[in-house]
Design brief:
By secondary structure, the protein is α/β, with parallel strands linked by helices. The protein has helices spanning 31-43, 82-100, 167-180, 193-199, 286-299, 353-368, 370-373, and strands at 23-27, 48-53, 106-115, 142-143, 155-165, 184-187, 205-208, 225-235, 245-249, 258-262, 269-272, 276-277, 311-322, 327-331, 339-343. It has one domain (18-373): D-Amino Acid Oxidase, Chain A, domain 2. The strands form 2 sheets. Strands 3, 4, 5, 8, 9, 10, 11, 12 and 13 form a 9-stranded mixed sheet that branches. The structure holds flavin-adenine dinucleotide (FAD) and 2-acetamido-2-deoxy-beta-D-glucopyranose (3 copies).
């Protein structure tokens, strides 16, 4: 790899002078660890960067959330603050990726969101403004007509243009990009943080992108973390192409949300879903699967009847949820090296990935800046 020209790269700061080339260690190779590694590389062209993890793209395990996501961009944020910002940064980055590299699994598509409650009860509105913050970003939301709404629905919104993700292809691309940017991959399960830092004694700074994984590390325990079980059904593309994504829900986030996400690049269609807090069960629940399929055919007429669906697989993933939201924070005290946390993205890991990675790298810069050492 030819290092980028230092005069034009963001790394031309005192923190990366050759005499102090930092050595970064990232724990976790889900969408968060991989994206953070790429943003880190863009800011530190000559640093040593290693991603250490038990699971990498291609693996399918209940301990690895990323392959199981739907996935799409449909923000849950309404804080008039950092969470909206993370999703906005990611939306713009997805637009750039979809435009430049149509083959990497991010595609534009419209969506219909159908709600079974009044808008004030849906958590769609940002309290401070009384508006839906991403209205313009998605091309101007349109209210669905009565005739477009399924029976019993209260209202619906068309998102003219958002993103859907073929997670299988996109994760592989992130990993491939890491490799072409001289990021080292190291596969190992670490029973503890002590074991991790013993294996990598030269680490300058650790990025913690281990999601639910650290509940099993013997010397750490963030009790704010909990799984939110999500079950989906992957089906083949139906004879009638599906022109848009669909979701239906009483609220933006609800245990009973129904969704239909056609994946780009021959990825089939994901039917969902469920949101079962504190449930670790990895076994598909076949009764729930029937219920998901029934709800989906009701919502997306292109699917036909339940009997017409060709099931490829029943899937279960655990969203890394966290009381208080994602933790993106610099911690200097409790460990030998500074730690930047980037975990607990729950059901929003893809749609907030680039924004949270940029925030994490800002914190890395803060931790390594000469002023910080005074
Ligand atoms: C059904 C479902 C639908 C979803 N839909 C969407 C969607 O539409 N849009 C969206 O944005 N998000 C969606 N999500 C959420 C998204 O999948 C997660 O937020 C995201 O994958 C979290 O990524 P992560 O990198 O933090 O965690 P993970 O992908 O779980 O990665 C954790 C990494 O840490 C490693 N690790 C942990 N502990 C250790 C250890 N002790 N030693 C070594 N390695 C360790 C693991 O091996 C792994 O590499 C959905 C999730 C599910 C389950
Ligand atoms: C790639 O990274 C390794 C280890 O971090 C380093 O020793 C090597 O010099 C780097 N190669 C290039 C071409 O930058
Ligand atoms: C990493 O995050 C986990 C939760 O995923 C937390 O329990 C743990 O304390 C963190 N590790 C470090 C190095 O602080
Ligand atoms: C967890 O989810 C499974 C599958 O839906 C269900 O059978 C089981 O009863 C749930 N367990 C708990 C503790 O809620």
């Amino acid at each position: 790899m030819t290092p980028p020209n230092p005069t034009t790269s963001p790394s031309s700061t005192p923190t990366t002078s050759p005499s102090s080339t930092p050595t970064f260690l990232i724990l976790g190779a889900g969408v968060i660890g991989l994206t953070t590694a790429l943003v880190l590389r863009a800011h530190y062209p000559t640093a040593n960067i290693t991603i250490a993890a038990k699971h990498f793209p291609g693996d399918r395990s209940i301990e690895y959330a990323s392959p199981w996501a739907g996935a799409n961009w449909a923000s849950f944020a309404h804080d008039n603050g950092p969470l909206e910002k993370y999703d906005e940064v990611t939306f713009r980055k997805f637009a750039e990726i979809a435009e430049r590299w149509p083959e990497v699994g991010i595609g534009r598509m419209g969506m219909w969101g159908v709600f079974d409650a009044r808008i004030e009860e849906t958590d769609l509105l940002t309290e401070a403004t009384g508006k839906i913050w991403y209205d313009e970003l998605v091309g101007g939301l349109r209210n669905l007509d009565e005739t477009e709404l399924p029976k019993g629905a209260v209202f619906g919104l068309e998102f003219p243009s958002t993103f859907r993700i073929n997670t299988q292809i996109y994760l592989q691309w992130l990993q491939h990009r890491a490799l072409t940017h001289n990021i080292t991959l190291h596969r190992q399960h670490f029973p503890s943080l002590t074991a991790l830092l013993t294996t990598f004694p030269r680490t300058t700074l650790l990025i913690n992108a281990s999601a639910l994984g650290s509940l099993h590390l013997t010397d750490v325990h963030d009790t704010a973390l909990y799984p939110t079980r999500g079950q989906t059904v992957l089906i083949t593309e139906p004879a009638t192409p599906i022109p848009r994504m669909y979701f239906r829900s009483p609220k933006r986030v609800d245990p009973e949300t129904t969704y239909v996400f056609p994946r780009p690049l021959g990825g089939g269609v994901i039917l969902g879903g469920s949101r079962q807090a504190d449930n670790w069960s990895a076994e598909p629940d076949m009764e729930l699967a029937q219920d998901i399929m029934r709800r989906c055919v009701e919502l997306a007429p292109e699917l036909g009847r339940v009997e017409d669906l060709q099931v490829v697989s029943h899937n279960v993933g655990l969203r890394p949820s966290r009381i208080g939201g994602p933790r993106i924070e610099l911690e200097r005290s409790s460990h030998r090296v500074p730690v930047v946390h980037n975990y607990g993205h729950s059901g929003a890991g893809y749609q907030s990935s680039w924004g949270t990675a940029e925030r994490a790298v800002e914190l890395v810069k803060k931790a390594l800046s000469p002023a910080a050492k005074l």
